[in-house]
Fold this sequence. Notes:
This protein is an alpha/beta fold. It has nine helices and ten strands.
Amino acid sequence: MKVLAIDTSSNTASAAVMEDNLLLGEYILNHKKTHSQKIMVMVSSLMADLELTARDIDIYAAAVGPGSFTGLRIGVATVKALAHAAGKRVVSVGTLEALAYNVPYAEHIIVPVMDARRGNVYAASYIWDGGLKEVGAPEGITIEECVESCGNFLDTIFLGDGALAYREYIEEKLGARALFPHGAAMNLRASSVAAAAMDKAKRGETQTYMEIKPRYIKKSQAEKDLERKEESK
């Protein structure tokens, strides 16, 4: 089974192709948020380098959230178009779930943290137990609430751009109980989306291209502005 996965949910844009348990190729760009301009170029270059066509892919996958509202829409729309054109199934992968796949079969609780600005984060908690199990569902909370909720855990692995942004605070509160992986494992990456999608596809958790959609935790600024306008009428 070949999976093509895309992640444009944060500042990092990436595309990857995995066949069974083998990563065939991955492009990652962590430079400015120009996903609408770059993601299809990355996918096209990756497919050309691997000498693959759209119909060679069995499953298309995308990180569907939480994350940047615009970024999520770009990634989901791209996968929709590719899967529709090739007549293939798709898999939705939670962004925080994909981050947890960066540290496969770790012994400790894993807390992926995405920076939502102004002291807010998107966070969840997972543990490997015969597969990745969700301990705490994804939510939008403050970094203080995130760290406090980890107070009863023993050693905890933090990763993601939120863990980078608030590492000093996390270490101050949790000390040696807070663990951080190396730099490459801190970033969102499409290869982890592909690995998660592979597991989901094997369990039959696939969709049509029309069913995949972003998963938002907080309302976008545009939605908030529209609500204010409606209330003021």
